[in-house]
User: Which sequence fits this backbone?
């Protein structure tokens, strides 16, 4: 959107952003136009929650960050422990006990051209900030989904397992959903099986069983997804990772999404069809309560 006058979405100028070892006020936190992260989307990221002054699932996020780095052949200039300490420092400097960390690594400054040979010094960025969540009303009523016309990236291309700085297919899917009056888009893979939503994993409940696409469907191995599967098993709910088709979504008794920001959020309509009784389901609500307890422990 183009707005006249000051950007209403400008960052809070009081926030301090960590870039390669130094803190900068939010409005002066900048990277070079020559950085291949900007020029080619050549980089990786993580989104991490802060609850109660603690970095939630920090090890899992750091492990995935380093796996993404390996996948795109990016040699990170810091160890996991060093990044963990820098993130803690960013929380302290910004006096944050609840919020969200965006951890980013870019290929760094280089000449024009795709070759990684002509770049040097990957940059690490840590933005510790507050988080804008779905409004409570939507959490209570549930989201509407549409089937996206955008196919999830082929796993042998830039795999959806990698949290790379190329999120355009997700952005286009989300925008498509919003233009059609829905909240989110469910994306299918190149074989036509359900993959995931633009920035969340998807689950359905059928006859009391929890079902979700296998990671082989070409999805991000969500950290919230893993925790939710474990919490369901602890409740005695069977969990199956399997190939799902669109009709499985239409026949679902319940549906919900999982993600670091959204946690667990119910879906109550898909392509204009009501899911279950049109309200967040019983198992969805039970898992939401379990998740809240788990993350506050
Ligand atoms: N799928 C995609 C495409 C994502 O970007 C994300 C993270 N926002 C997720 C799923 C959920 O993963 P996590 O639970 O690790 O946040």
Assistant:
């Amino acid at each position: 959107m183009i707005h006249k006058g000051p950007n209403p979405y400008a960052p809070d100028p009081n926030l301090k952003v960590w870039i390669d070892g130094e803190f900068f006020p939010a409005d002066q936190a900048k990277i070079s136009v020559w950085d291949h992260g900007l020029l080619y989307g050549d980089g990786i990221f993580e989104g991490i929650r802060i609850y109660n002054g603690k970095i939630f699932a920090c090890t899992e996020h750091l492990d995935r960050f380093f796996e993404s780095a390996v996948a795109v052949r990016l040699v990170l200039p810091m160890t996991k422990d060093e990044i963990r300490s820098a993130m803690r420092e960013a929380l302290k400097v910004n006096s944050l006990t609840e919020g969200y960390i965006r951890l980013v690594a870019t290929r760094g400054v280089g000449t024009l051209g795709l070759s990684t040979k002509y770049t040097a010094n990957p940059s690490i960025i840590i933005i510790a900030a507050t988080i804008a969540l779905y409004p409570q009303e939507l959490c209570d009523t549930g989201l509407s989904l549409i089937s996206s016309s955008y196919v999830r990236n082929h796993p042998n291309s830039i795999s959806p397992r990698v949290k790379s700085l190329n999120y355009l297919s997700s952005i286009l899917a989300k925008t498509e959903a919003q233009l059609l009056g829905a909240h989110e888009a469910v994306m299918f893979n190149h074989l036509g099986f359900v993959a995931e939503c633009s920035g969340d994993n998807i689950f359905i409940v059928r006859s009391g069983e929890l079902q979700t696409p296998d990671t082989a469907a070409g999805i991000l191995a969500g950290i919230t997804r893993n925790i939710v599967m474990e919490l369901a098993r602890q409740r005695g709910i069977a969990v199956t990772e399997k190939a799902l088709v669109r009709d499985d979504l239409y026949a679902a008794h319940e549906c919900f999404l999982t993600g670091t920001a959204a946690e667990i959020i119910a879906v109550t309509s898909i392509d204009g069809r009501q899911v279950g009784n049109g309200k967040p389901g019983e198992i969805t609500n039970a898992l939401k309560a379990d998740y809240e307890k788990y993350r506050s422990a």
In short: Residues 47, 170, 196, 199-201, 220, 222-225, 258-260 surround 4'-deoxy-4'-aminopyridoxal-5'-phosphate (CB under 6 Å). The longest strand covers residues 43-51. The radius of gyration is 20 Å. DSSP finds eight helices and 17 strands in the chain.
